[in-house]
């Protein structure tokens, strides 16, 4: 019997590896494209404004469909949703690599975003279900957090290597063998479980409202840099997005089988952790994007050097997420660990504000990215554990989709707000370095606010409190 139990435990960890491979493929695609954009522009003849759609065509469906995909995964089965997402993403990646025109590349990127949302939305829910025991779950979430957090910085390096060594087409072709292997292994290793059934909650109206609201909201954010934050375009689409999302909330409060049960958001840890993630990811995404521009335009780094410059972030996240973070969370609890981690990330961002025009990497850049790597490596596992702490088995898919949604919305928000601030300051003052410094300062402020919210809003999960507080004897 013990051998059988051991085999089952081993199979779960194999399944975790397969799920993380699928997640890595999706996360890498979010940043690997950025390094290749100038080459894609020259090859396909994009204008500067048109080039942005190579990124936005992926970001809009990915951010907009995560919540819906998570709920549908609960209904039809999360394994089926994951397999479908990997298949769609893989086929779309092949089409992206084969693209010889602007229209085909943008259309294929949109389909990539759909597939990415289908797969990513249910992964965390499957992990929580597969590892119900507290300490095993902490280790499993730590591995997932490493992949989700480090994949972005690894993508910068991979994008530079593939673009310079072969061609930009291979930043998409590389997904095809990975996707095929992940699909085949997932069939064999990932445990299948029946969904709760479409009759249990196929809220079509709610799905239309939230999907349209999120998609229009993400579109508004990513286009605000072009039209301006107080333009009629931004205010009009922003108001439409808010109206649709408000309608969704009203719908969820009254419908019998809601897409997003509002009871999930009544939990202060779930709501607080997701809000904190929006602020933290906004700050970090802003640094990755504007930091890459600073390294390229001010310091003269090439794509490969930019990827290497951010490598300490991936190393820091990996070194902590794959072992130390689970032990630290078990020893001290997720809440104090998250607070400390957010302070470290904020310090790294604020330290970047002093980077000069003739910066020395070891003295001026490395301390910032190292602090961010350590902080993020501790923060993401703790934050995801808190966000999933009270999700039931039936709601774990939608809770997972919510975590991924707030991450993508935070990234889009941070990218647009900080890029707009940097551009506006540079246009008014003629000081490009000052614009970068302003954006880094605001990014650090966002994460500092996240740390304050963690202190005020979050509570240690009940199960962990019971483990940490000794039971009186007698």
* Helix percent band: over 70%
Shape: globular
What is the number of E strands?
Answer: 0
* Number of H/I helices: 18
Q: Would you identify the CATH H-level superfamily of the largest domain?
A: MFS general substrate transporter like domains
The figure for the number of domains is 2
Output the CATH topology of the largest domain.
Answer: Growth Hormone, Chain: A
Assign the CATH architecture of the largest domain.
Up-down Bundle
Transmembrane segments: 12-39, 51-69, 81-100, 106-128, 140-162, 168-190, 202-222, 228-250, 271-294, 306-324, 336-353, 365-388, 409-426, 438-458
Main location: membrane
Keywords: Cell membrane, Membrane, Transmembrane, Transmembrane helix, Transport
Domain Major facilitator superfamily (MFS) profile: 15-462
Question: How would you describe this structure to a colleague?
Answer:
There is one protein chain. By secondary structure, the protein is mostly helical. It has 2 domains: 413 residues, MFS general substrate transporter like domains (Growth Hormone, Chain: A), CATH 1.20.1250; 54 residues. 84% of the residues lie in helices and 0% in strands. Helix 8 packs parallel to helix 16 and helix 14 runs antiparallel to helix 17. It starts with a helix and ends in a 6-residue tail after the last helix. The N terminus and C terminus are likely disordered. GO terms for molecular function: transmembrane transporter activity. Pfam families: MFS_1.
């Amino acid at each position: 019997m013990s051998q059988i139990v051991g085999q089952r435990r081993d199979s779960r960890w194999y399944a975790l590896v397969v799920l993380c491979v699928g997640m890595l493929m999706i996360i890498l695609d979010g940043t690997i494209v950025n390094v290749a954009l100038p080459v894609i522009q020259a090859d396909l003849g994009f204008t500067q404004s048109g080039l942005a759609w190579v990124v936005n065509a992926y970001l809009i469906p990915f951010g907009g469909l995560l919540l819906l995909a998570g709920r549908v995964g609960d209904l039809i089965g999360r394994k089926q949703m994951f397999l479908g997402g990997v298949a769609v993403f893989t086929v779309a990646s092949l089409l992206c690599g084969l693209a010889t025109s602007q229209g085909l590349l943008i259309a294929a990127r949109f389909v990539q975003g759909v597939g990415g949302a289908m797969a990513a939305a249910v992964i965390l829910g499957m992990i929580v279900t597969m590892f119900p025991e507290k300490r095993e779950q902490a280790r499993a979430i730590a591995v997932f957090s490493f992949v989700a957090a480090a994949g972005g910085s690894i993508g910068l390096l991979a994008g530079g290597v593939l673009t310079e060594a072969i061609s930009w087409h291979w930043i998409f072709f590389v997904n095809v063998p990975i996707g095929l292997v992940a699909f085949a292994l997932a069939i064999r290793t990932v445990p299948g479980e029946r969904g709760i059934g479409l009759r249990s909650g196929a809220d079509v109206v709610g799905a239309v409202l939230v999907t349209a609201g999120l998609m229009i909201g993400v579109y508004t954010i990513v286009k605000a840099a072009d039209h301006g934050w107080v333009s009629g375009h931004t205010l009009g689409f922003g108001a439409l997005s808010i109206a649709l999302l408000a309608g969704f909330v009203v719908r969820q409060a009254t419908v019998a089988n809601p897409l997003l049960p509002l009871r999930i958001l009544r939990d202060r840890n779930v709501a607080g952790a997701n809000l904190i993630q929006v602020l933290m990811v906004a700050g970090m995404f802003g640094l990755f994007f504007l930091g890459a521009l600073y390294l390229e335009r001010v310091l003269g780094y090439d794509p490969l050097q930019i990827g290497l410059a951010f490598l300490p972030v991936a190393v820091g996240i990996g070194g902590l997420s794959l072992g130390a973070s689970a032990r630290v969370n078990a020893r001290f609890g997720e809440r104090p660990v998250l607070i400390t981690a957010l302070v470290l990330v904020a310090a790294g961002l604020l330290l970047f504000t002093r980077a000069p025009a003739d910066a020395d990497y070891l003295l001026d850049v490395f301390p910032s990215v190292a602090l961010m790597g350590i902080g993020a490596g501790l923060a993401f596992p703790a934050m995801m554990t808190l966000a999933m702490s009270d999700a039931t088995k039936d709601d774990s898919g939608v809770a997972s989709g919510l975590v991924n949604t707030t991450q993508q919305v935070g990234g889009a928000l941070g990218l647009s707000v900080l890029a707009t601030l940097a551009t506006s300051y540079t246009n008014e003052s003629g000081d490009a370095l000052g614009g970068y410094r302003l954006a880094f300062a605001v990014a650090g402020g966002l994460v500092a606010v996240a740390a304050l919210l963690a202190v005020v809003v979050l509570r240690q999960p009940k199960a962990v409190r019971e483990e940490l507080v000794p039971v009186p004897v007698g």
